[in-house]
From TrEMBL:
Compartments (UniProt record): Cell membrane
Full-sequence portion shown in this chain: 23 to 254 of 487
Organism domain of life: Bacteria
Name of the featured protein: Amino acid ABC transporter periplasmic protein
Family: Belongs to the binding-protein-dependent transport system permease family.
Length: 232
């Protein structure tokens, strides 16, 4: 014990609710694929993490302001983010999808969004994707800080549709959210862990090294299966 050097603790920002990647359980403890993966990587690489559920956009801003050391939040690897931040190797495939109320019968494709109100989540890849389509399809947008408030706006009929990542929408719908997915997902990219390019410990490289280990050991698969079942 005496020979063991003290392990460094990194502060890692995450989303408030983005199941199955991060969410609070009944006891208000944070669980999810991202949380378990981050802990497994930290264990494999010999460091400690303190997880802070800040909200997605707030977490990214806190990272850019160097108030925290990293972000794991179902965060899509995009060229824009790679220009500003150090992003790890991809660990989960994703894409952005449109969803409407389960009762909605009139919206069957993007073309049906003309004149409609679309709810988006600030600073997300799905919001960027929708904003690129906004002019062509002629819809208006309103923004929210977290996915649940965005879904609520659609459920209550304030907004006609929303855009979020497919695995997150699928999980929410499978666990009772009364929305439905429309069409095929748009390509936005895979999830990665983010840190700053000037992170003194090259936390992105540590994450990549740990990710390799937890993939090789089978632990990655176990973590995903814990939340999504073995069919995933
Ligand atoms: N994957 C999306 C992004 O990176 C959304 C992440 C999130 O809402 N937590 O922008």
């Amino acid at each position: 014990q005496t020979t063991q050097a003290a392990e460094k603790t990194y502060v890692i920002g995450t989303d408030v609710t983005y199941a199955p990647f991060e969410f609070a359980d009944k006891n208000n403890k944070y669980i999810g694929i991202d949380i378990d993966l981050m802990n497994a990587v930290a264990k494999a690489e010999g460091f400690k993490v303190q997880i802070k559920p800040l909200g997605f956009n707030a977490a990214v801003q806190a990272l850019e302001a160097r108030q925290i050391d990293g972000v794991i939040a179902g965060m899509t690897i995009t060229p824009e983010r790679q220009a500003k931040l150090a992003m790890s190797d991809p660990y989960y495939k994703s894409g952005a999808s449109m969803a409407v109320s389960a009762k909605n019968k009139s919206i069957k494709s993007l073309a049906d969004l003309r004149g409609k109100r679309v709810a988006l989540k600030t600073g997300t890849a799905a919001a960027d994707y929708a904003l690129r389509l906004k002019k062509k399809y002629g819809f208006t947008t309103v923004t929210f800080d977290d996915s649940n408030n965005m879904y609520d706006d659609v459920r209550t009929g304030n907004s006609d549709a929303c855009f979020d990542d497919l695995p997150v929408l699928q999980y929410a719908i499978a666990t009772g959210l009364d929305l439905k997915i429309i069409g095929k997902p748009g390509k936005t990219g895979s999830y990665g862990f983010a840190t700053n390019k000037d992170n003194p410990d090259h936390l992105d490289q540590k994450f990549n090294a740990g990710l390799k280990k937890v993939r090789a050991s089978g632990e990655y698969k176990k973590i995903v299966a814990k939340y999504l079942g073995n069919g995933s």
